[in-house]
TrEMBL record:
This is Uroplakin-3a isoform X1. GO terms for biological process: urea transport; water transport. Keywords: Membrane, Signal, Transmembrane, Transmembrane helix. The keyword Lipid metabolism does not apply. It comes from Alligator sinensis. Residues 250-269 are annotated as: Disordered.
Amino acid sequence: MWSCWLVPAFCWLVHLCVAQSLRPQIASPQLATNNPTFTTIALEKPFCVFDGSLSPGKSYEVYLYAMMDSMSMISSAVTDNSSKPLDSTFQEVNGGQLGPYKAAVLNVPDCASPPKLADIRNVKKASDVLKQYLFRVGDDVSCLYDPNFLGVCNPPLASDTTYRFKYILVDETLGIMKDETLWSDPIKTNSVKKSSTIDTWPGRRSGGMIVITSILSVLIFLLLAGLFASVFFAITGSEDSATTETRHISQTVQQVAPRPQASSDRADQ
């Protein structure tokens, strides 16, 4: 009798421990080449993470929480004392600086039928596969300023800032958390370069490079000048030759042509 319920209980504990030992992962560079950006971070969705906590006949959702990895954090809790998920918004926690905020509500990924990553090579299927497999935090640029927006706001993240993320499994009927992952490892958004650090030419080139560039410029100028000079002399030389030849032909014709006056004298005789 003990074995009848010990085995299912053990399996349930194993699944629970597995879920609670996992962390949200940043998307692979093969799937998201420009990640993180200045204001977004692409994460892998929790495929096969919560399967051990799903009960047949019940509906579930996955909530994604985000927070800054900051020393000013008041609390990292995402539920109240009754296990109900917090509905903290981006504005209420100052963009995640004071605590976690709900960044997204997702369907539970289908572990039995995950997207085929090989389809990414297919241009027609790539976009759909990435939407199924990834979620980009900070991708909604308008929800903060839209007075009619009623969904979960996922506004842009702060640049050069470190964040952590957590997935939780929520029973839709009871409205309570059934399972959760650990907080992710710190993930930092890219930083915007200051104008003073941008490499400009020639202010931040070495003296040697400037000298070499100047010499090359002079050589190119001399080469072009020589080319133009040779073309000019070739054209003017051909014109002089044509003029000389024309004069020579004219003189020859004048010498060979008969004199009309001599012919008339012979006729008189």
